[in-house]
Amino acid sequence: MKIHRLKINTCLLAVCITLAGASCKKYINERPISSTYDSKFWTSQQSVEQAAVALYGQLRSCLRQDASHFVFGDLTAGQFATIYSTYWNYNTIQPSQGSNFSYVPYLEGSLKNWTRFYQLAAQCNLILARVPAMPLSAFSNDSTVRNRYLGEALFMRAYLYFYIIRAWGDPVYITKIYDNVDYGNIPPVARTVEADVLKACITDLQQAAGYLSFSGGDPSIAFRASKGSVYALLAHVYAWLHDYSNAHQACQQVITQGGYALEPMSSYSNIWSDQLSRENIFSIAMTFNSNDNNFLNAGDNSSWSEAHYDFFSIWLKDSAIDFRTSNCWVANPTLYADSDRRFVSMFHAIDASGGDDAGYELLKYANFKYNNPASKQQPYINNNLVLLRLSDVYLLDAEAQAVQGDLGNAVLSLNHTRERAGIGDYSGSMAQQDVLQEILDERGRELIGEGTWFYDLIRTEPYVHNLQDVLNYSQTRITEKGYYWPLDLNALFQGDPLLTQNPYWSSH
Amino acid sequence: MPYFVLPKLFRAAAGARRQILLVMRFLSFFLTVVCMQTYATGHAQEKVSLECKDVSFKQVLTIIESKSSYRFLYHDSSFSSLPNISIDVRNKPALSIVDQLIAGTYLHYRVLANNLVVFGEGAYLVADSTIHGKVTDDKGQPIAGVTVHEAGTKGGAVTNERGEFTLRVKDAGGTIELSSVGYISQRVRLNNRLVFSIHLMAEDKSMQDVIVVGAQSQSMRTTTSAVSVISGKQIENLPAPSFDQLIQGRLSGINVQVNSGEPGTAPSLVVRGNTRVSQNIGGSSLDAARALSGPLYVIDGIPVNPEDITNSIDATGTNYLAGLNVNDIESISVQKDATATAAWGSRGANGVIYITTKKGRSGKPEFRLNWYSGLSIKPDLLPTVTGQEERRQKLDLLKAYANGNMGLLRQIPQMLTDSLNPAFNNATDWQGLFYRNAYVHNADLSMAAANELVNYRLSLNYYNEEGIIRAFGYQRYSFRGNFDFKLSPKLNAQFIAGISRNDRQRGRKFTNRSLNGTQVTTNDNNTPVSGANIPASMYRLTSFDSLNFTGLYDKLRNQNINNQYTASLTLNYKVFQDLTLISQASMDVSTSNKDYFQPSNIDAVAYQVQQTLQPSYAESDRGTFTNYFLSNRLNYAKTFRTGESFEHHVVLTASQQFNRNIATFAQASGYNIPSNDIQVVSGVPQSSLGANSSYQAASLLSYVGQLQYDLNRKYIAYVSERTDASSRFGARSKWGSFAAAGIGWVLSDEKFMDNTRGWLSYLKLRASYGQSGNQSDDYYAPYNSYTLSGTYNGNPAIQPSYTNGLTKDNLTWTSTTQKDVGIDLNLFNNRVSIVADVYDKLSKSDYFNFNLPFFTGYQSISFNATDLWVSNRGLDFTLITHNLPARNPLQWTTTLNLSYNKNLLAKLPNGNRTFLQDDYYGVTRIYSVGQPIYRMFQMQYQGVYNNYSEIPVNPLTGQYITYFKHNHVVRPGDPIWKDQNRDYDVWSDEDNGDSHGDRVPTGNPNPLFTGGFVNDFSYKNFYLSVVCVFSWKRDIINTFREGQFDNIFDFPSVSALYDFASKRLPSLAGLNYWRPDQQLKGPGHQASFPALNPFVGHYYEFLPFSSMFNEDGSYFKIKNIVLGYRVPEAMVRRAKLNGLRFYGVIDNLTTFKRSSVPDPEAVDNLGVYTGGLFPLPRKFTIGLEIQF
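Output (C-alpha cells, whole complex):
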C-alpha cells in the first residue's frame, strides 16, 4: 500500500512538472493582442489600407502644428498681419516687422524643426519597404491594388520632401527604414542638395503616375493621391527647378485628363467646405467625423483629431466664432479690385478690436460649429484644407507658358480664374515681366490663405523680384537663400552631427 | 497522543536484542521529532540496599532487577571490559547506584516506559534527565511556541499555550537554548536543576528561526544573507491601512516615506537605495510615484509586484498592500543582499519583502476579538493673516513700494481700498473649509486552533478610516483562512484563502492614471483650491463656494473599489527521510474598479459663478489582474558526520517556478448624459461616448538551485543559481541567469573564543556577492507596437508608435551586482545585539529612453542602457539593547535602526552625457555622473543685495551685473544669484545655446540617513512603546511658498495688482524682506529676503530655478506611542476569559524639523512640497483585545 501511494505521488509529481514545463514554453513567447506589430501587421490588404490612411492623417498633423502651413505660405508673404495678444510671437516673421525667421519664441518646435515630416517619411518608407514584400494574394491577386498603395506612398514621399525643401531648403534625404538592427547604431546623415532630392522626387512621381489613375471626375478622390495630384505636384516640382517645359506638360496632363472643373462662383466656398468640389485635386479632410475618437477625448488639442478649432481659427474673429477668441490674422487684401467677387464673398471688414488693427477677416474657412451646441462645448471649424486645385494648375501653366515666351497662351490660362472672379480678361501690358507679375498677383488673389503664395514669390523671384522689391529682402538674403527657414540646431544637432545650418541663418 | 506510540514501537523491536543499538538510535530520532513527556513513569525512584564483593557489573544489575521494578537491557559484550565491582549501599535510589557504578566509563543508559533501562555505549556518556519549565515574557504572560533545545543536540520541545515545556536533556549540567519569533534567544545553564522559570525578552530584530530565501528555508543562525525581520506583533493595532507604512523605522536598510495622509495610498518604500533613473518625471503624480524603485513582495510564498498591477490595471490608486490586514501578519522579513535576492532572481534586484501570515498555534480553539477606535485630528493650518490684518499688510506693502508716488497709489484695487464693501470685508481662512476631525475604526475577529491533524486560523477584519479632508476615506473588509492538514506522516497540505474589499472615497479626485490622455491631475490635487491659489480672506464665502469647495456636490459620485482574492495550496511530501517535495499552486486576483460621475453645472448658481457650462461626465473603469504562480521544489537536507567532531549539514534545493500575469482593463466614458440623475454611462450621444479595453499577459519560467552547507554550524557556505525566461523579452534574449554566493563564520563558537564567553554571546561574520535582475515594465517590450493613431476621412489609421516603434529582439534583463559584508553580534548575555552590514550595489542596463535622430522618424526608443550604471553604497545598522537586568520588574528595550545610503550615477549613456529634466513643478533635475539621481539643478541663491555698493560691476563695461540674459540690470532688493560662469550675467541658460547657464547642482532629495529609534518598556502588566523615525540630510523644495510669491509678485500690471489683492498673501511674519523705507533707515539695516514689490516689472525671480526655496528636509518624528495594560490572569480567569488587554495609541505625535513646511515627510518622492498634499494626521485611538 505504501508503495502504491508512493507511485501515485510520483505520478502526480511527474504530471505537475511536465504540465508546467510544456505549457510554459508556449507562455514565454507571449504576443500582444491589444496592439499590432511589425511581423503581424504587414499581412493583409486591410492593414496596408490603414497604413496608407495614416499618411494623410500624419500630413494633416504636420501642416496643422502651430498653423505652420499658413505661417510658411501666407504670413511670411505679407498678406496678413498678426498683432498682439494671442499671436504676439508670430509678429517678428511678418515682412512688415522685418521677416526675422530666427526669433520665434515657443514656435521653434514647428517652424524651425522638421522632425514631424520625418515621421511621415518613415511611414512612406515603411509602406514602400513592406508592401512589395507581401504576397500578391493579400491583395486578391490584383497588382493594381497593390500598386495603388505604392503610388500613394511615392506621392506622399515626394510631397513631403518638396514641402521640406520649400520651407527649409536642402533636406536630409532618407528612403530607408530603421528597425531592429539599427537602434543604438545609427550613423548620422548629411543634408542632400535640394536639386538632387527634387530629381529623386520626380523619379518617384513618375513611378507613382504609373501606379495611380485619374479621378475620372469623382470629387471625393481628392482626399487621397491620384494620377491628377501626381501630375499637379510634378508640375510644381519642375517649376521649382525652373524646368518650365516639363512643368507645362505636367499641367496639361492635369488640365486635359484629370477630370477637374472650376467651381462656379456661385458655389465658390464649396472648395473648402465639407461639400465636394470638382476643382480640388488634392485636399486634406478636416471636417467633423463621428468616427473620430480623438476629437471626443481631446477636443482640438489632439494632433490627430480630424476637425480642429485652433488651425483655421486664426482667420476668424468674434462675429464668426461666437466669442471663442477675439484675435485673428487680419488681411490687408491690396491686390483685389473692389469688384472682384472673391473679395466680396471671401472677406469681411472688421473694426479694430482686442489689440488687432482694423482690416478684413478671411472667410474661406468659416464653418464654425460646436459639437455640443447646448453647452457650447467642443468647438471646431468644419472645413477642408485644399493643397492642390485646378486654379493653381491653370496659373502655374500660365507661368510656365509665360516664362517660355508663349505669352498669348499664358494669358488664356490666366483668364480662367479672372473670368470666374468677374474681373474680366487680362488686358494689361504684354511685356513678359508684366504678364508674369500679373500671373503672380492673380495667384495671390486666388490662393490667398491657402499656404502657397510665399513659395510662389520665391519661385518667381528670378523673373519678377517681388522678394526684393515688395518684401524688401536684401540681396544677400536672396543669394544666400534667406527665404528658407533656419533649423533649430539645439534640438536637431544631437542626433545628427553632420547637420548644418542654412547659410544665411548661420550669420543672422 | 503520540507518546502512546512509543512503547508499542519499542516492544516490536525489543525482541531482537542484537539490534538494541539500532533501536535506540531509532528511538532517539523519534524523541527528537515528537519531543515528548514519555518519562513520567520513571519518577518512581525506588530505593534499594545492596552489598556485594567482587562481582561483575552484570551481576549487580541482576540483583537490582530482583529488588526493584527496573529491568535492564544490554549487550553482553558491552560490559566485557569492565572490572569486577565491590559495593555496599543502604537505601539508595536504584539508578543512583547504577550511576555510581558506571561513572567514568564509556557506558550510558536511558530509562524508558515501564522502568526499562537500556544501556548503550559510546557518545552518550551522561545520563539523560528530564527538565520542566515555564516560559513567560517580560510581562509575565506565558509564551506559546517557544522552541527549547539542548545545546549541541538535536532534541527539542515546544512550549504549549501555558508556556510550559518538558525536555529530556542528556547533560543536566549543560545548557538549553530557547528561541521564538519575536523574542531574544536565550541560553540557560541547567546546573543540574530540573524545574525552570524562564523569562524571554521580546526582541525587535529577532533572530527568527526560519527565513525563506528563494525556494529554501534557512535558519537565521546559519544564513549568510542580510535579512531583517520583524514580528507582526510589533505593528499590530496601529491605525494604518497597510503594513508598509508601519515598518517605517523598524528595519534597517529600507527607506519608507509616508508622503501622503490620504487613507489607502502607498508610501514610498525603497530597499538599499533607489536604482531607477526615471526620465519621465515631468508628468502627473503617477510619474513621480514611479520615480523610485520598489521591492518585490512575497506573500505566503506568492511573489507579487504591486507596481506591475498599478501599471496595468489601476483605476483607483489604492495601495495593493492595503488589501492585507495588518493584524493577520505573523512576520515580515526584508531581504537585502545578493544571496537573499538572487534566488528571487529576475525580480529581486530592488530587494524582497517576505510576509508570512498567522497560523493556528493553540491546542484548544482560541477566539480573539480585537477592536480599536479613534480620532484623526485636523492639521494645524498654515499661518496666515485674515481680514483687517491682511488688508493692512497689503496696503502697507503697496505704500512702502509706491514710496509716495501718487500715480502708483492710484492703481490700488477697490478691493483693498473699499473696506466698507461687505463683499470684501470678511475674514475667511479658506484652509479651514477643507479639513475636519475624522474617525478611524478597526475590528478583528480570529479563531484558531492546532492539533496533530489540522491547524487553522480564520480571521475577519473591518477597517474604516475617514480622511481629514472632507469626502476622503477608506474602508476594508477582509477574510483570511490558513489551514494546515496533516494527511499522512509523509504528506501535509497547506491551504490559504483570502478575500478583501477596499472601498476608497476620494472626494473630487478623479484620476490616478491617464488612460486616454485627457485627465491628468497631480497627487496634491486634494482640495478644490489648493496651494498657491487660495483667495484673499476678504472675500465673502457664498453658499455656493462652500458647497463647491467642500467637494460636496451632492451629485458627484466617486466610487473606488479594489477587491482581492487569493488562494494557495501547498503540498509537502516527504519522499524519503531527507528529501521533501513541495508543490505550490496559487492564484491571486486583484480588481480595481472606479465609477465616477460629475454632474453638469446646468443649475443657475453654478453657471452664474463659472460662466461656462460644464457638461456632465460619467466614467466606469474595470481592471482585473490575475497572478498565477506554480512551483515545484525538491529539498534535500542531510546531516552527516566525519570523524569525531565534524558535523556537516547540507541543504540542497532545486525548484521550478512558473508565473503568469494577465491584466485586463475596460473603460467606458461619456459626456452629456441626458440627466443629472443618471450617474452611469447610459444614454450618452454616440459622439460623446468613449470606450476601450485592453489585455496584457506576461509569463515567467524559472529554475532555481540553492545549496547551503555548514560545518558544525560554524563555517557556512552558500551558493545559488537562478535562470529565468521572461515573455517580456525578445526571442534571442529571453533567458537571464543570476548567481550568488555567500560565506559565514560563527566566530563565537570557536575554541579560541572561549575566554570571551562571559561577554560575547554570539558573533557571526558574513560576506556575500551576487547578481539579481529586473525585467521590463512593458509586457510586450520587444514588439514595436503599432498604434491606432486616429481616423482620416472617417477611416482608421495605423502607424508605428514613434516613441517605441522598433522591434527589439535583443532586449534583455537588467542586472544588479551586490557585495555585502555583515556582522551579527550579541553581547552580555544577549542584552546587546548588533547587526551591521556594509554594501555596494551596482545596477546596470536599466531601460532607458534613448532619443533617436530626427531623420529616422522615431522620437525615442527604450532599451537596455549598458552604459547606465547606478551605484548605491551604504550601511545598515541595528542596535538592540536591554537596558535593565532580566530580573528587574521594569524592562526597557531600545532599538536603533539606521540606514545610510549614498546614491549616485556611475555612468551615463551617450558617452556620459549629462542631461537635464524638469519635474512637474518646474524644478530642474540633473542627471550627471557622480551626482545622485534627481539632484536639483538651480542657480545658487545667496541672499539679497541691500544697496548698490554690494552689486558687482562688470569691469569690462562698467555696468552693474545683469540677470535674464542682460534684460534686467540688477538693483538693490534683487536676490543675489551666484554668477557661476563669471560673465556678469546670471540666468538659467545662455543665448549661445548653453543650457546650463549659471546653474549648479544643489538640493539632493535622496536622504542620506533614515531610520528609527524604538523604546519598549514594560512594568508588571503595563507596557509602553515609543517609536520614533527620522530622516537626515535630505533637501526639499517648498514650491508652495515659491508659487505664492510667484503668483503675487510676478509680471505686475493692473491685473497683477488685482492678483496681489485677491490672493492670499504668503505669511510675511518674520520675513525680513527688502523695503525701500527700511533702507532709508541707514546702511546698517540689512534685509534677508528680496524685495516684494508689486509695482515693478519682474523677471521670474521667484521661480524654482534658483535655490531660494530649498530647505533642509531632515526630521525626527515621534511616530507613535502605544500604552497597554494586560488584565491580570486571575481576574481574566474569573471572567471566564483567556486574556484581556487594553491599549491606547497616539500616532504621528510630533515632528522636529528645520524646514518651514508643516511636515517634511509629506513631500513627494522628488522632495517637492506643494502645499496641497494630503497631510499626515495625528491619530488617537483606544482599543481592547479579548481572548476567550
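The first strand of chain B starts at residue 47 and ends at 55.
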